[in-house]
Amino acid sequence: MAEGGPDAGSAPPTPSMSSLPLAALNVRVRRRLSLFLNLRAHVAADWTALAEEMGFEYLEIRRLETHADPTGSLLDDWQGRPGASVGRLLELLGKLGRDDLLMELGPSIEEDCQKYILKQQQEASEKPLQVDSVDSSIPRTRDPAGITICDDPLGQMPECFDAFICYCPSDIQFVQEMIRELEQTNHRLKLCVSDRDVLPGTCIWSIASAVGWWWSSLMITCKARNVTSRLSLHSASLQVPIRSD
Q1: The pLDDT of residue 192
Q2: How many alpha carbons fall within 13 Å on the CB side of residue 163?
Q3: CA distance linking residue 196 with residue 172, whole number of Å
Q4: pTM listed for this prediction
Q5: Contact 113/86 with Cβ under 8 angstroms?
Q6: Same domain, 110 and 200
Q7: Do 120 and 64 fall within a single domain?
Q8: Which pick of 66, 77, 104, 117 has the fewest CB atoms within 10 Å?
């Protein structure tokens, strides 16, 4: 029976040791590497020969010589460079003839790599199912642009008023009287009263900008204590200009 390829629904292949980053090597392996390579010997390549194979320059090697553990510092510096991996480290050690290191530390290196692979697989399985970018927070439709209850939701035909009434809750009776005098008489003015005409939740700054932009050129500020009689209100209402548009 001919051998078939892997099934389409099978799990992704386990990464080989040669492709793993140098971060897979734990402290124990690094210390044992230092014990072998920090020792200067004429018969075996030391850490300086390994540094040259890794692409380190003379001044960089001289700087590492000042460290208490030059091999450990070398591995730390090299693991951030392109091409650094466990497989590449083993390849360089074999090139330098340090088969003794490969025989001595091979099992420990393989154990560290297996632990690293299992940890990566566990972290991948614990990731949430949703994608990194949550698109549900992106508005699918344009937000309504209206400010008053009769505004065009698209903001193309805003509702117009003759005057905006600026008042505080204590002046509500005076506002009601003003509505009767200016809207329900022959004046037929259209007033904008926040509690009656503005949509709930509208930002106060949106209301203020609309007053000066398209609603009206007149804002009436109410102070009920300054109105002494209905006649004074009626006289004041006659001064309100009616919009021509």
Answers
A1: 82
A2: 22
A3: 11
A4: 0.48
A5: yes
A6: no
A7: yes
A8: 66
Q: What is the mean pLDDT of the chain?
A: 75
CATH code of the domain in which 26 resides: 1.10.533.10
Of residues 86, 92, 98, the one with CA closest to residue 29 = 86
Paired tokens of 179: 């509505």
Among 125, 145, 180, the domain boundary falls at 125
Look at the chain and report how many structural domains it folds into: 2
In angstroms, the CA 41 to CA 217 distance is 94
24-74 pLDDT tens trace: 999 999 999 999 999 887 788 999 999 999 999 999 999 999 999 999 999
* Torsion sign, CA atoms 56, 59, 60, 66: positive
SS (H, E, C) 74-140: HHHHHCCCCCCCHHHHHHHHHHCCCHHHHHHHHHHHHHHHHHHHHHHHHHHHCCCCCCCCCHHHCCC
Distance CA 108, CA 69 (A): 20
- In whole angstroms, give the CA distance from residue 40 to residue 35: 11
Lay out the sheet containing 191-193: strands in order across: 191-193, 163-166, 219-221
- The residue type of 171 is D
Identify whether residues 105 and 172 lie together within a single domain.
Answer: no
Burial group, residue 68, by CB count within 10 angstroms (0-12, 13-18, 19+): exposed
SS3 92: helix
| pLDDT computed for residue 11 by the predictor | 43
Residues 106 and 28 in one domain: yes
Q: Is the pLDDT of residue 227 over 50?
A: no
Through-space distance between the first and last CA atoms of the chain, rounded to whole angstroms: 90
- In the chain, the percentage of residues whose pLDDT exceeds 90 is 37
